[in-house]
Amino acid sequence: MRTTVGIIGAGPAGLLLARLLRNAGIDSVVLESHDRTYVERRQRAGILEQGTADVLRAAGAGERMDREGLRHDGIELRFERERHRVDFPARTGGSSVLVYAQTEVCKDLIALQLKEGGPLLFGAEALAVEGARSDRPLVRFRHEGREDVLDCDYVVGCDGFWGVARKAVPAGLSRVFERTYPFGWLGILADVAPSHDELVYARHERGFALLSMRSPAVSRLYLQVPEGTEAGAWADGEIWDELERRFETGDDWRLERGPVTSKSVTPMRSYVHEPMRYGRLFLAGDAAHIVPPTGAKGLNLAVGDVVTFARALEHLGDTGSAERLDSYSETCLRRVWQAERFSYDMTTLLHRAPGASPFEDRIQLARLRRVATSRAAETDLAEGYTGFPLE
Ligand SMILES: Cc1cc2nc3c(=O)[nH]c(=O)nc-3n(C[C@H](O)[C@H](O)[C@H](O)COP(=O)(O)OP(=O)(O)OC[C@H]3O[C@@H](n4cnc5c(N)ncnc54)[C@H](O)[C@@H]3O)c2cc1C
């Protein structure tokens, strides 16, 4: 098989890239190791920055998102039983975010790709990327029990943190920046209307909790749990009891309970691989960087990377200049590190580290009070949450 851009992975990064390239008249082939059902059901991110929603709309993938997505103009910070709302449009000159699940973004992009785009092969596992330094890189892959080769002009590794693309960068050229956190998130989906109309980020001495939603009838809730916790170790009733404790307020706010339909634990990690490009191999999304989910940045960063790549390739076609492709890694990393910083700030602002000292507790509360009382601090949070602009 031969194509211009070989894309490994049909998560949000790979699927959107295929769509952007197709719209620019550039052909691609997407290889995805899992089946369609798995990709469409994998529960992950749920917050789209305004810039991400704009990109999906411009790519012709925003119709259902605009019908079913929920526009959110703020979040609530909760600490010491008090509530503080951060008003996004007021602090950013009009920006907001959209609650629309990653599963739905993927479903929309898969449907478009199968209808109008180039080949999207499910059950096609990339085994290795070879010849990244040559003009003709290739991807070896296995599909329907047979090994095959995809010859490309460019390969984009959109294959997530555990993929193969990153391994093609020689160890001597790779630099990894990493931090793991001694806690994770126990997440549930519940068939109950959200108890608040905006996301609630709660800092509590027992640990962090987040109230989020997937739709007006489905709640998504998270609890900070110790690293290595198994989802099955918590009974549904225990989860609700703990959520109630951490979200408690001084007023008459109440948490509504409902049937839990899914339960999982997400580890928390910050990770950046530099560079994001090696010859004609480009890394995008989780293949190159991971953020803890507190800042809701993972999916949005993946979108930023593939937009940068698609624009750079279009620029090459329009002008003959490879300048933007050459600076892909530096351009992406500037935005990536802002998102890493923001996600780290949000994580350390809201989670209680095991063994935190009374001094650290007081500092954390002082940081939260600063956001609640200073326009400048609140603006910084609102700008970070609604998204850093694409260059
Ligand atoms: C459990 C979990 C919960 C999360 N929750 C949030 C959240 O609440 N908010 C938030 O902002 N972010 C969250 N994230 C992060 C966010 O979902 C990711 O940043 C986003 O999925 C990145 O998209 P991607 O396309 O780069 O990678 P992925 O979505 O990981 O897609 C990679 C794709 O590549 C495929 N693949 C892997 N290896 C191969 C191979 N060898 N050959 C072919 N295909 C391959 C995979 O099957 C997958 O479909 C979460 C992540 C996880 C893991």
Please describe what this structure looks like.
With 391 residues, this protein is an alpha+beta fold. It has a domain at 5-71 and 98-178 and 269-346: 3-Layer(bba) Sandwich (FAD/NAD(P)-binding domain), CATH 3.50.50. Helices cover 36% and strands 29% of the residues. The chain contains twelve helices and 20 strands. It has helices at 12-23, 36-41, 50-58, 63-68, 88-92, 102-116, 236-247, 298-319, 323-326, 328-350, 358-373, 375-386; strands at residues 5-8, 28-31, 47-49, 70-72, 74-79, 82-87, 97-99, 120-121, 124-130, 138-143, 146-151, 154-157, 175-190, 199-203, 209-215, 218-226, 260-274, 277-278, 281-283, 289-290. The strands form four sheets. It has an eight-stranded mixed β-sheet with strand order 6-5-14-15-16-13-17-20. It has a six-stranded mixed β-sheet with strand order 8-2-1-12-19-18. Strands 3-7-4 form a three-stranded antiparallel β-sheet. Helix 1 packs parallel to helix 6 (102-116), helix 8 packs antiparallel against helix 10 and helix 11 (358-373) packs across helix 12 (375-386). It is globular, with a radius of gyration of 21 Å. It binds flavin-adenine dinucleotide (FAD). Residues 8-14, 31-34, 39, 44-46, 102, 125-126, 158-160, 163-164, 266, 285-286, 293, 296-299, 302 line the site of flavin-adenine dinucleotide (FAD). Keywords: FAD, Flavoprotein, Monooxygenase, Oxidoreductase. It is an enzyme of class 1 (oxidoreductase). One of its GO terms (molecular function) is 4-hydroxybenzoate 3-monooxygenase activity.
